[in-house]
Amino acid sequence: MLSTMEVVALTVLAAAVVAFAQYLFKKGVPKFSASIGGVMSLLGNRLVVAGALTYMAGLGVYLVALGSGQLSFVYPAFSSTFIFVILISHFKLNERIGYLRIGGVALIIIGIALVALNV
After folding, report:
1. Which of 74, 86, 94 has its CA nearest to residue 13?
2. Which residues, 6 or more positions from 69, have their beta carbon under 8 angstroms from its beta carbon?
3. Is residue 118 predicted with pLDDT exceeding 80?
4. How far apart are CA 15 and CA 88, in angstroms?
5. 25: nearest Cα among 78, 88, 79, 110
6. pLDDT recorded at residue 119
7. Is the pLDDT of residue 114 over 80?
8. Distance (Å, rounded) from C-alpha 35 to C-alpha 41?
9. 92 CB contacts (<8 Å, ≥6 apart)?
């Protein structure tokens, strides 16, 4: 059985890995066509494949955390994915992050902290 801090670390790691997978997906599908040809082109796109493998790795880490922690904590803590996505979007994709999104991320952080207080 893992300690609470180890479960937290694994959950945050899983969130970071899944967020990076989303970045790879975004880079791999800048213009997606919802057709059979479009879907087939995704299967050959190295960034999409890397994103899928990265996503599966994140899922593996998440499952380890879930197996050792409480669902009522691990799942809400996994919402830290949104924090990592905002950071990646800003620093790697040069997206502008407005005050409302920053406020939303602050609320997510507060929510995670409140859930963590009851572990």
Report:
1. 74
2. 2, 4, 7, 11
3. no
4. 12
5. 88
6. 61
7. yes
8. 10
9. 23
**Quick check: 11 and 65 in contact, CB under 8 A?**
yes
Are the C-beta atoms of 81 and 59 separated by less than 8 Å? Answer: no
Burial classification of residue 8, based on how many CB atoms lie within 10 Å of its CB (0-12 exposed, 13-18 middle, 19 or more buried): buried
The first and second tokens of residue 41, run together, are 């082109």
Q: For residue 93, report the phi and psi dihedrals to the nearest 5 degrees.
A: -105, 0
pLDDT in tens, 7-53: 999 999 999 999 999 999 999 887 766 777 777 777 778 999 999 99
For residue 81 the two structure tokens come to 């994915």
pLDDT at 59 over 90: yes
pTM exceeds cut of 0.90 = no
CB 47 within 8 A of CB 27: yes
For residue 25, CA distances in Å to 60, 69, 92 come to 18, 29, 13
